[in-house]
Amino acid sequence: MYKPLADEIRPESLEDVVGQRHILGPDGLLRRIVESEQIPNMIFYGPSGTGKTTVARIIARKTNRSLRKLNATTAGIADIKRIIDELDTFLTPGGVLLYLDEIQYFNKKQQQSLLEFIEDGRITLIASTTENPYFCVFNAILSRSTVFEFKPVSPEDAEKAVKRAMDLLNGQREKPLSIEDGVTRRIASACGGDVRKALNAVELLFSTARDTVTLQDARDVTQRSAMRYDRDGDEHFDCLSALMKSLRGSDPDAAVHYLGRLLEAGDLIGASRRILCSASEDIGLAYPQAVPIVKACVDSALQLGLPEARLPLAQAVIVLATAPKSNTACVAIDRALGDIRAGKGRGFPRELQNVHADGAGFEREQGYLYPHDFPHRWVKQQYLPDDLKDARYYEYGDNKTEQAAKRYWDEIKK
Questions:
Q1: Helix, strand or coil for residue 29?
Q2: Residue 52 burial by CB count (10 A; 0-12/13-18/19+): exposed, middle or buried?
Q3: Residue 34: enclosing H or E segment and its boundaries?
Q4: Angle ∠(225,230,231) on CA atoms, nearest 5
Q5: What pLDDT band is residue 316 in, cutting at 50, 70 and 90?
């Protein structure tokens, strides 16, 4: 019976697990927990192919617990009940370690069905998720669990697994294949931190090679493997966030990189929305012309479609990343909204009301002063409601454009 290579060389001890040194190294907290054999309920959070299932299997073996594995994409309440029925029987003498993969697909009722048993210790839950557990796991489970983050495996660590897989496969052949220089490094660096993906590439290369595993074959099999992107998951929002923060941080190289990742995944709309937002949120009044420039670039991109859309969008992100920055407009509107949501800002100054605001037969002198009748088109009068008449929402930024405006109005209003 066929057994995937990733399962065939799955590590049997924590020492053989590649990556995750921050939690599995000599002083890592998860390692110390496993060595103590006092296993709490845990949630393993991180991308696929980073060792979550492997570590759960090692924990079950080391603690002499009966391992039961469910995948939340296909399991239901009936599967949970079958495991519960095994409790306190000869089938589970040391208790059950339940590994629940993709817990984010369990609804609230399904997750809560485990509460009684993880509280009294008859079931030790290790759940895994590729999405942020604080968004997808219900509080009742979270409060009874310790969260450990599994990070993408570095190319250096992934290369160890790739070499081990190649040695195993060559050991199974009558005539071992020769490996061209650079093949293992290429596979390890192109897997995007996903060891399973790297091992699948090794398996494919060995099954199709004649006498030699060539570097060109390795390039062909991994040409789009290095990128991680999940349109509905954390990778999607992390990439959008990274683009926005790179623009705000005035790093054109990083901004172009994250734009490229979004476009390679086909997310033209998501990239366009963030670029448009940044023009007003982060550049704002320091370079107001950025808004029409970026709008024109986005419109061109949407008309062109991919792959040509990359050109105007690259132009837009470089303009934004290298432009002077100001968030004064963003801060001003947020301050105003804060007062409004706090119930402040009652009514209107009489001078600003519609001249017919009092209704027929009862009109008072409004007292509005028309600015265009005064020098420099300005006259002092109250515009904010009475309870906010001294409020200040906007403060001039220290950039050239806003400081010029400040000097202009300071001279007039003095």
A1: helix
A2: buried
A3: helix 29-36
A4: 130
A5: very high
SS3 364: coil
Q: Indicate the burial class of 141 (C-beta count within 10 angstroms; 0-12, 13-18, 19 or more).
A: buried
Query: Which of these, 379, 359, 377, lies nearest to 367 by C-alpha position?
Result: 379
Q: DSSP letter at 396?
A: -
Answer yes or no: are the C-beta atoms of 229 and 239 closer than 8 Å: yes
**What 3-state DSSP class applies to 218?**
helix
CB 285 within 8 A of CB 326: yes
Give tens-digit pLDDT for 123-169: 889 999 888 888 888 888 888 899 999 988 888 999 999 999 999 88
Tokens for 172?
Answer: 């199974």
DSSP secondary structure, 153-169, as one string: PPHHHHHHHHHHHHHHH
Rounded Cα gap, residues 117 and 284, in angstroms: 55
Gap between the Cα atoms of 395 and 379, Å rounded: 20
**Is the overall model pTM greater than 0.70, yes or no?**
no
Q: Alpha-carbon distance 193 to 191, whole Å?
A: 6
Instruction: Quickly tell me which residue has 């239901």 as its tokens.
Output: 76
pLDDT, tens digit (0-9, with 9 covering 90-100), for 42-89: 999 988 888 898 998 888 888 777 788 888 888 888 888 888 888 777
- What are 166's strand-pairing partners? none
Most confident of 101-115, 167-181, 305-319: 305-319
**pLDDT, position 355:** 65
As a whole number of Å, the end-to-end CA separation of the chain is 88
Instruction: Using the predicted structure, report yes or no on whether residue 363 has a pLDDT greater than 70.
Output: no
- Sign of dihedral through CA atoms 386, 387, 389, 390? positive
Residue 94, pLDDT above cutoff 80: no
Is residue 278 within a helix (H) or strand (E), and if so which, with residue range? helix 268-278
Residues in the chain: 414
Number of Cα atoms under 13 Å in the Cβ half of residue 111: 23
Q: Is the per-residue pLDDT at 361 higher than 60?
A: no
Residue found under tokens 């991308």: 47
